[in-house]
């Protein structure tokens, strides 16, 4: 980042001479340093998975949530500053709630993603604010079928078949590209996600995996993958990885 | 719980977001007390500041338009039954003939409504919002029947305090921790629980039957039979009712609301054919 | 007639334009009678449990008594929705009082609080008729009687609600309240033994239940002594 020390990185209110808003780039950095978050769209739903680094041995299991419902049919996994993530999620809940109160039906995925994009974009416009240090993967299953979106700190919004953010994103994306997402069920998907998260995890400290999905099996409700299924997927993923290691 | 800056609700203060994050000019003038307001389900309690500042008197709901008639409720050994017809009447016109007046709130609770049906739909929207919030909190907690009943009591009472009543009598049926719950709320906030209830005309027509035949440990079959009898009596005497009913049940297995059904009636009773036979000079 | 409960149909007078719709009132009288009798070392509080509107009974089993602590209760007749709200308000005020003072609120303090709470709504009053009863700081029975907007007075016994015209004279006769005008001031606590006083209250309710349609079903009786609150009940006619 060549801008450091040049004075153009002090606020989002100023461009650098070569056309960057450094605060926005720094926010993206906060995301890039976070635990990996993976999302894939399978044929019958969307699976989200988060790698939660264990910051202390005394930490309670399942604490530091990374996946959150935003409505019955929509939920998010956030990478980056956890507190910022919760703020974005609460905005998503509010938007979903407001849409339903006006139109009487669930907010479509693309509307929610765009609204969150505009919301996060606002924080890139004013000197007094800082951008959200969060990339949010948004999984929805409405009338338009299962969909996966990514909202970045700059406010840009993408729709993906599968993507990853955070520390291990590069490796994870490579692995996702190898998957046949169009033929994969969510049951298979959770195992694939579990495998990818284990593959890209490269720290001595352990991590806890958080899996959530919205699919036919969950009645098109966004929910954490039932503990038993998640455990099975994780065990199968570990076994598959070990088998691959043996081959090498 | 997380503070939720809903974009439409004036109850929610601006918070630390750029002003543009709150869409629409209406949100520029938010009430000063806003941050103290609860962050969900609070709309019903909020006074529109413009209504207070305007010079001419505010026009409140003076009378209902589309109404539903009595809702009946009884407890039985392992649950609660609610029943009513499916009519939405516009005065004495049978305007909507398949209106669902029994609605599920969550797995342990349901609500039935008589009175103004648009007000009921508004009330259901409030309850849905609360149970959506419960879903999003994702901690396994949900509203219990007694809490729903208490909430509705506060909503209706607050609106009567503003001289702008929600024109309903509601019945709340639920089953939680092994016990049936049956409560009602009237449009000025009058609320009570009992082993059997009826709103409106039902209090005159069905309650006497219930008092005679109801006992708390009756079986589901007995309860359904009693309910059918009560519905039939209400249908015979209440001109704003139709022979198309729904029966809702809540037990430990959750809430189920039946498809509409009709009851067999007999109009051949002597007094139906000549009501004045034994009352010369009155009818 | 598809409308909700407290709708008063207007009967058009001859020659007047017919009024099309039911009028609406924010008030309703749900009836019921509450009685309290103070003794030297006890206080009896009793309330009927019938709840009515017009000529209909809504429920036969609705308590009208709020138990704040073992030495103080509030009993209210009148409109049930206002009663419920008032009781909720007093309850929450009592809880915060305990957080601040680390002890329950005394009966005289509750009495003043109730008065303030009622007067706060002076221009849109709670339609409730209250008695605050319990033991005072010296352990003597205390009864406070109110009007709907908060003026109150400590008395030796009191009666409020739909049956008060029937019961108050009986209590006056049996408990012989000395006029506050008599000098030197007279003892105004009843000197009846507890059991006799309970019988008197029960007898009064039986009589009121005979003539007042809003008093019936059951009577909830609380007997407050230094050892705590004991409950008793009395069945009235259900007609």
Any chance you could write out the topology, listing elements then pairs?
The complex is a heterotrimer of chains A (248), B (283) and C (239).
Chain A: H1 22-32, E1 37-42, E2 45-53, E3 67-71, E4 74-80, H2 82-103, H3 109-122, E5 134-142, E6 145-151, E7 157-160, E8 162-165, H4 169-178, H5 186-200, E9 207-215, E10 222-224, H6 227-247
Antiparallel strand pairs in A: 1-2, 1-8, 2-9, 3-4, 4-5, 5-6, 6-7, 9-10
Chain B: H1 49-53, E1 66-68, E2 71-76, E3 79-85, E4 88-90, E5 93-96, E6 102-106, E7 109-116, H2 117-137, H3 145-161, E8 168-176, E9 179-185, E10 191-193, E11 196-198, H4 201-205, H5 207-213, H6 220-237, E12 245-251, E13 254-257, H7 270-273
Antiparallel strand pairs in B: 1-4, 1-7, 2-3, 2-11, 3-12, 4-5, 6-7, 7-8, 8-9, 9-10, 12-13
Chain C: E1 7-8, E2 23-24, E3 33-38, E4 42-48, E5 51-53, E6 56-59, E7 65-69, E8 72-78, H1 80-101, H2 107-120, E9 128-135, E10 141-146, E11 152-155, E12 157-161, H3 164-175, H4 194-211, E13 218-225, E14 228-235
Antiparallel strand pairs in C: 1-2, 3-4, 3-12, 4-13, 5-6, 7-8, 8-9, 9-10, 10-11, 13-14
Folded structure, characterized:
The complex is a heterotrimer of chains A (248), B (283) and C (239). Helices cover 38% and strands 25% of the residues of chain A. Chain A has 248 residues and is an alpha+beta fold. In chain A, the strands form two sheets. Chain A has a five-stranded antiparallel sheet with strand order 8-1-2-9-10. In chain A, strands 3-4-5-6-7 form a five-stranded antiparallel sheet. With 283 residues, chain B is of the alpha+beta class. In chain B, 27% of the residues lie in helices and 24% in strands. In chain B, a hairpin with a 5-residue loop joins β9 (179-185) and β10 (191-193). Chain C has a single domain, classed as 4-Layer Sandwich (Glutamine Phosphoribosylpyrophosphate, subunit 1, domain 1), CATH 3.60.20.10. In chain C, α3 (164-175) runs antiparallel to α4. Classes of the chains: A alpha+beta (248), B alpha+beta (283), C alpha+beta (239). Chain B binds chain C through residues 62-64, 67-69, 89, 114-115, 153, 157, 160-161, 163, 165, 167-169, 186-194, 199-201, 203-204, 238, 240, and chain C through 1-6, 20-22, 24-28, 30, 51, 53, 56, 58-62, 79-81, 84-85, 124.
């Amino acid at each position: 980042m060549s801008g450091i020390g040049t004075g153009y990185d002090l606020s989002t209110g100023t461009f650098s001479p070569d056309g960057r808003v450094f605060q926005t780039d720094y926010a993206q950095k906060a995301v890039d340093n976070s635990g990996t978050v993976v999302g894939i769209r399978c044929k019958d739903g969307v699976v989200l998975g988060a790698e939660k680094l264990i910051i202390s041995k005394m930490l309670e299991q399942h604490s530091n949530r990374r996946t959150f419902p935003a409505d019955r049919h929509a939920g998010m996994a956030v990478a980056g500053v956890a507190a910022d993530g919760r703020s974005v999620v609460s905005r998503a809940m509010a938007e979903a709630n407001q849409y339903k109160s006006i139109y009487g039906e669930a907010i479509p995925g693309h509307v929610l993603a765009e609204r969150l994009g505009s919301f996060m974009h606002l924080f890139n416009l004013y000197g007094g604010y800082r951008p959200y240090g969060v990339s949010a993967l948004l999984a929805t299953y409405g009338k338009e079928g299962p969909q996966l979106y990514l909202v970045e700190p700059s406010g840009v919004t993408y729709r993906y078949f599968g993507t990853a953010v955070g520390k291990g994103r590069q490796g994870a994306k490579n692995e996702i590209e190898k998957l046949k997402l169009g033929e994969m069920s969510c049951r298979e998907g959770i195992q694939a996600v579990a495998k990818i998260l284990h593959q890209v995890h490269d720290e001595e400290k352990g991590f806890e995996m958080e899996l959530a999905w919205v699919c036919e099996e969950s009645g098109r409700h966004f929910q954490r993958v039932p503990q038993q299924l998640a455990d099975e997927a994780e065990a199968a993923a570990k076994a598959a990885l070990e088998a691959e290691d043996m081959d090498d | 719980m997380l503070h939720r800056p809903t974009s439409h609700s004036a109850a929610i203060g601006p918070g630390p977001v750029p002003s543009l994050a709150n869409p629409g000019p209406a949100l520029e003038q938010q009430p000063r007390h806003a941050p103290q307001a609860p962050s969900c389900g609070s709309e019903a309690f909020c006074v529109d500041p413009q209504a207070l500042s305007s010079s001419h008197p505010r026009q409140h709901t003076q009378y209902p338009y589309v109404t539903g008639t009595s809702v009946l409720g009884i407890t039985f050994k392992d649950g609660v039954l609610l029943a009513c017809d499916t009519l939405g009447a516009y005065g004495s016109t049978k305007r909507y003939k398949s209106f669902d007046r029994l609605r599920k709130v969550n797995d342990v609770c349901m609500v039935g409504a008589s009175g103004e049906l648009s007000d009921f739909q508004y009330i259901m929207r409030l309850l849905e919002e609360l149970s959506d919030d419960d879903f999003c909190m994702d901690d396994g907690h949900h509203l219990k029947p007694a809490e729903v009943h208490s909430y509705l009591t506060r909503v209706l009472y607050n609106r009567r305090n503003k001289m702008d009543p929600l024109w309903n009598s509601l019945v709340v049926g639920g089953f939680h921790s092994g016990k049936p719950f049956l409560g009602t709320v009237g449009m000025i906030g009058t609320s009570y629980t009992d082993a059997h209830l009826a709103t409106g005309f039902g209090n005159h027509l069905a309650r006497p039957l219930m008092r005679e035949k109801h006992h708390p440990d009756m079986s589901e079959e007995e309860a359904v039979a009693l309910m059918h009898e009560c519905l039939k009596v209400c249908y015979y005497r209440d001109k704003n009712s139709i022979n198309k009913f729904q029966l809702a049940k809540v037990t430990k297995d959750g809430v189920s609301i039946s498809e509409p059904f009709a009851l067999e009636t007999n109009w051949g009773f002597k007094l139906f054919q000549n009501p004045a036979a034994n009352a010369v000079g009155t009818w | 007639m598809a409308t909700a409960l407290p709708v008063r149909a207007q009967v058009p007078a001859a020659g007047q334009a017919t009024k099309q719709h039911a009028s609406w009132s924010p008030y309703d009288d749900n009836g019921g009678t509450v009685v309290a009798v103070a003794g030297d070392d006890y206080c009896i509080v009793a309330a009927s449990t019938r709840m009515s509107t017009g000529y209909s009974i809504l429920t036969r089993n609705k308590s009208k008594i709020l138990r704040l602590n073992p030495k103080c209760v509030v009993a209210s007749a009148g409109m049930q929705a206002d009663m419920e709200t008032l009781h909720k308000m007093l309850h929450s005020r009592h809880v915060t009082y305990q957080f601040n003072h680390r002890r329950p609120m005394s009966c005289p303090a509750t009495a003043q609080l109730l008065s303030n709470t009622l007067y706060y709504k002076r221009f849109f009053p709670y339609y409730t008729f209250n008695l605050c009863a319990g033991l005072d700081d010296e352990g003597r029975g205390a009864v406070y009687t109110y009007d709907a907007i908060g003026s109150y007075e400590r008395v030796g016994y009191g009666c409020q609600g739909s049956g008060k015209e029937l019961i108050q004279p009986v209590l006056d006769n049996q408990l012989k309240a000395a006029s506050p005008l008599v000098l030197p001031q007279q003892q105004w606590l009843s000197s009846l033994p507890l059991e006799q006083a309970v019988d008197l209250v029960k007898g009064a309710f039986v009589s009121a239940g005979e003539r007042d349609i809003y008093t019936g079903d059951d009577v909830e009786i609380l007997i407050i002594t230094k050892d705590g609150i004991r409950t008793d009940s009395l069945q009235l006619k259900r007609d």
